[in-house]
Amino acid sequence: MGEVRKLQKKLRQIENLEIKISLTPEEKVKVSKKAELRFRLAELLLQHSGPQQTQGIVGKEEDKMKRQVEEVTEQLVACRPALKIAREERRENERIDGSQTDGRGETHFPVSPSAEEQEDAEFKSRKQTWEKAKFRLRTLEGHSDIITCAVAVDNLVISGSRDTTVKVWHVPTATEQRNLGGHSGGVTCLSAPPRAPPPEYCRRLARVFDLADKERFVLSGSTDCCVRIWALSSSQCVKSIYTFNAVSSLCFIAEGEGFIVTGSDAGKLQVWSWSSLENCQSENAHLDAVTTLQSQGPLLFSGSAEGCVCVWEVSDERTEPLRRLHVWGPEVTGCGGDDGRLILSPRGDRVFLSCGKASIRILNWRTGMMTRLTNHSSTAGVTDCVNQIPGLLIGSCFDITNGESTINLFSLPQSKYLVSLTSSDLPRILCFAAWLTASGDHRWVTGGRNLIVWEQLPGSFKKRGDVTVRRDSRLEDCLLESDRDSEDEQSEVDDDEDSIPQDASETEEPASSSWLRCVLQ
């Protein structure tokens, strides 16, 4: 399997190179060999695996089996025995009066199900719902380069790109509403102050800039060292902050008068007052680029390219709003290196991490306990994004061996695998945003080479939809693993440390080929 891991490493490098805005002649030679390497890898995997039974039921095969089950059910219903009719009548009576009768005629009142049984029933119901889910995909065309970030505000999607623009899209009509130009460098991050705070708080934010009480804002950060605050109703940049550092991440904190927190490509965190736009605090928090910032109430979570996660408490009662509570390094998180940028999504005491590996890491930020949630059936999978909405954990997965991109869904709080969603020619997903419509249906947007809106179709919709829903039993069998890397992942890391005996121009990974550096260039 040593050659398999080496080919996987080369393909991972090529995928990162393809994100770059320009390639050297040597890098172009490496990229040109991708198809050849994939073909060779497929041959090796076939030799090692041999004849195997299909691990999951997918697409038309699943539909065929469902039809067979339905036909058998209809035959059984057509000739119900008298005993079954009697049982059904007894159950109907029990349903009406809430009691149960045993074979001796004695009546027993029902016992309330345990919390575990209720949770299991809820999971089964959710799984059945998602197995029948249908989505329509629509591509939003307008950006001329990689889409690096996206957020959702009401019926709008706001996207940022390496082409230096921020675009506003109307989702129901899939049209571009506004082009927010002003940055001179690639846009790396977006943040939108939530509607969740009380209405008076939102009005106070708007009054700082003498705008209408119902104004909505979006913040953009760029490699030009600027953070821009945009008013969506007018598409105007109402304020701009120069940070003196390339901005790699940002977050709005709804504490006190409000704070803007920015992360730089050199590991610095800076806090800015919403009302005065003055710098309140600067912290050299990380050793490498701050790739993610997320808030949860008065808490701020920061993650960096070296694999470190910091937890901060935010308070407007201190001169310096940030106070560090915990710091967990790469030796705990298992992230870091050039596999991919670190993205996090907090939930209570847990933080879900994606860092370019085949699994989603789960960190208990209070204790440092780590577990792993399998997001791909082999080490060839790359997890670029992790996100969550009520009751649902969403992880993107990209297979470097065949170029297939997938979205995996897990039920919360159990972290149990539900289904996988994919579509033909779906590109690698580098950013992700999800929200629920007023009717409770799901709307998602994925970014990378293309900006794609995923719109859930109602259950009464008769056509098939654009997305294939399938279940991979290999993910179901490997729900939560220990905090240690699997033998395959550890062997891959060991192989990465060894030199590959080929021409140096083909095997040495340039310093700029890490995920983050490729996107920022």
TrEMBL record:
Pfam families: WD40. InterPro entries: WD40/YVTN_repeat-like_dom_sf, WD40_repeat_dom_sf, WD40_rpt. Residues 88-125, 480-521 are annotated as: Disordered. WD repeats lie at residues 140-179. Keywords: Repeat, WD repeat. It comes from the Eukaryota. Residues 88-107 have a biased composition (Basic and acidic residues). Residues 484-509 have a biased composition (Acidic residues). This is Lissencephaly-1 homolog. It comes from Sinocyclocheilus rhinocerous.
